Amino acid sequence: MAAEIQPQPQARKPCLLSTIEGFQEVVSTAVIIPKEDGVISVSEDRTIRVWLKRDSGQYWPSVHHTMSSSCSCMSFNPETRRLSVGMDTGSICEFILSEDYNKMTPARTYHAHQGRVTVVLFVLEMEWLLSTGQDKNFTWHCSESGQQLGTYRTTAWVSGLQFDVETRHAFVGDQSGQVTILKLEQDSCSLVTTFKGHTGNVTALCWDPVQRVLFSGSSDHSIIMWDIGGRKGTAIELQGHKITFSQETKYKKCVADVFFEQTPEWLDSDSCQKCEQPFFWNFKQMWDSKKIGLRQHHCRKCGQAVCGKCSSKRSTIPLMGFEFEVRVCDSCHESITDEDRAPTATFHDSKHSIVYMHYEPTAGNLLTSGTDKVIKLWDMTPVVS
Question: Where mainly found (predicted)?
């Protein structure tokens, strides 16, 4: 009697489509051209390149343009084929690409900043060019006239920028770890509010205009989802990275339709809220009880201040954003079920340290640029479909 061997189900994972090499320095920014087998890249080696896929399946440059200084960032608008490139000198150089992407024509140069341009963003609906630099200035220009419309001084130099067309709100993330929301007018702006949730510098921002939520990634290894549209001040913390958000070799996909719980605020107490043992700064209780003070910890599930003995267990809490084991108090550990520990994120090894990512939803392709000076293109449809 023969036994039938059942094939093991294959895990859904990204498929590497192609690699693009030949750069002398790290690629600062690269984007996939929508509805085209093409990629636009700007690099620290001072080059702007447009790569088109040939019949051989390989990508070859149809445009190779060398600038006078390093290219730090860029913004590409596929409707107008307008390419805005931020420079190390503080200028922003604008180009128009031909319909077949074989020619690039210089259009305008903006002298926007006194230091390296960190983020540039073209807003077609407003005909505005938004930019930030290491000079700690956030500026916006009229792309039709080239004139500067306004500027705002930030507390630290900006590393993340997003814009909501409907409300004219700019989201500005900086090196101090805070996210500032500005209301832009034609020639002025006003401060709306400031979010302070990261302990490290903000490395990336992503705005979802449909759900009206803002995602901020930071060097503190966390991603925070800010509920802007709900106006309730809700912030969901997602911890799925072990090192700096922009430098890890693994990228993470979060299940978007999962109902996440807000992480609790850490409570203040002079003694353990479980066993009532004093903490080491509570001299009065230490003297009265003749006990040595203990070190304070916090349960990531309930937020209570606890001692090490009452929080000896560790657990993942994916529904609160903790994909790795974190400290929880003993009572919370008993309440966490196996179903609660079911992961909401999948991890995939890109085989290089990522400095920039771009996702093209039309084809379901992901671009990663690494410290190895290589661009990789991935088919993400097995993962996101």
Answer: other
- Inter-residue contact 141 to 109 (CB < 8 Å): no
Strand, coil or helix: 292: coil
> Residue 206's closest CA among 220, 219, 216?
216
> How far, in Å, are 123, 177, 304, 342 from residue 199 at the CA level?
30, 6, 20, 27
For residue 247, what are the CA distances in angstroms to 24, 87, 202, 264?
Answer: 19, 22, 13, 28
Where do we find the tokens 């954003």?
A: 321
- Domain coverage including residue 225: 15-263+345-384
Residue-wise pLDDT for 147-156, tens only, equals: 999 999 999 9
186 domain-assigned: yes
Q: Would you mind telling me the total number of residues written for the chain in this entry?
A: 385
Q: Which amino acid is at 95?
A: F
Closest CA to 41 of 85, 98, 100: 85
Phi-psi region of 168 (alpha: psi -120 to 50; beta: other; left: phi over 0): left
- Residue 10 inside a domain? The answer is no
Whether residue 293 contacts residue 278, with contact meaning beta carbons closer than 8 Å, is answered with: yes
Query: Rounded to whole angstroms, how far apart are CA atoms 158 and 179?
Result: 10
Mean pLDDT of all residues in the chain? 86
pTM: 0.74
Closest CA to 72 of 87, 53, 57, 91: 87
- Asked whether 172 and 179 are in contact (CB, 8 A), the reply is yes
Q: Is the pLDDT of residue 227 over 90?
A: no
Question: Are 169 and 181 spatial neighbours (Cβ–Cβ below 8 Å)?
Answer: yes
Tell me: do 227 and 281 sit in the same domain.
no
Same domain (yes/no): 274, 230: no
Rg of the chain, C-alpha, whole Å: 24
Residues 31 and 88 in one domain: yes
CA neighbor of 198 nearest in space, from 216, 180, 172, 213: 216
Enter the tokens of residue 351: 């085989």
